[in-house]
Amino acid sequence: MRFVIVTGMSGAGKSSVLKMLEDAGYFCVDNMPIQLVKEFVNFISKGDLNEVALGLDVRSGIALKELDDVLNGMKESNFPYEILYLDCAQEVLIKRFKETRRTHPLSGTGRVDKGIELERKELDFLRKKADVIIDTSKLLIRELKAQINKIYINDEKFNNFYITILSFGFKYGIPIDSDLVFDVRFLPNPFYETELKKKTGHDKEVRNYVMSCDSAGRFLDKLEDMITFLVPYYISEGKNQLVISIGCTGGKHRSVTLVRELEKRMKKSSEYGLKTEHRDIEKDD
User: Fold this and answer.
1) Listed residue (208, 219, 198) closest to 281, CA to CA
2) Strands 51-55 and 82-87, how do they pair?
3) Residue 114 main-chain phi, psi, to 5 deg
4) Greatest CA separation found in the chain?
5) Over the stretch 186-242, which tens digit does the pLDDT of each residue have?
6) In angstroms, rounded to a whole number, what is the distance separating the alpha carbons of residues 204 and 199?
7) What are phi and psi of 264, to 5 degrees?
8) Domain limits of the chain?
9) Domain spanning 2-153 has what CATH number?
10) pTM over 0.70
11) How far is CA 215 from CA 187, 188, 193, 259, in A?
12) Angle between helices 214-236 and 204-211 (to 10 degrees)
């Protein structure tokens, strides 16, 4: 059987994930008292349920501290379980709570950020035990569902480290969530070619124009080499995502082309998840 414990930060998407798993055929239970978990495990181990998901988090209150002993007991009895931990950046969580006007379970009448900080401390032992950590800070619901399907339905390998390659235009500002920023305005600009001005890096003509410059290929070689060097160090430091931003003037031609070319190269690796975004490609000049 497959037994998944869904946990993590309040507001990070646990309820949504449980609904996704339920729709996929999992028997789902949310917020069960910790004192009953051991009995629940004994019950399902003798039954005919093949896929079970259990939601546990800080709503359990002070009893959450007992969960560590329960998990150790399950491990000693060779009962198979997996922990899915949903994480999210603090500023995103604060925004979500403000938009939904919900109260954080640990903030009481105080500030949301203080409740979030306390929650991180209380859930730290679960995060360290997690088999899968998904950061939902920048994931759309459909993207989250795709990841859940990949791991728990299609049973594909999941990588906790995720790389986003993002194109942007400097005229609209540098993306605030960037970890690494690269400026490709040194390359010839297709914008000044009449037949290319209205096209984008998705078009073959623009791609060929940009990549016909030897500097573009050399830049990609050096960038790929640097990323290959850096990623293992980011992973060893506990980082679970990396945003690589590549910018040109308007974010339509050179940056889009190079993001797409870099994606082709990096897809060869199975050591991390990968996705691309083009922030400014639809904006007017």
Assistant:
1) 198
2) unpaired
3) -70, -40
4) 72
5) 999 999 999 999 999 999 999 999 999 999 999 999 999 999 999 988 888 877 789
6) 9
7) -60, -40
8) 2-153, 162-278
9) 3.40.50.300
10) no
11) 7, 10, 19, 15
12) 90
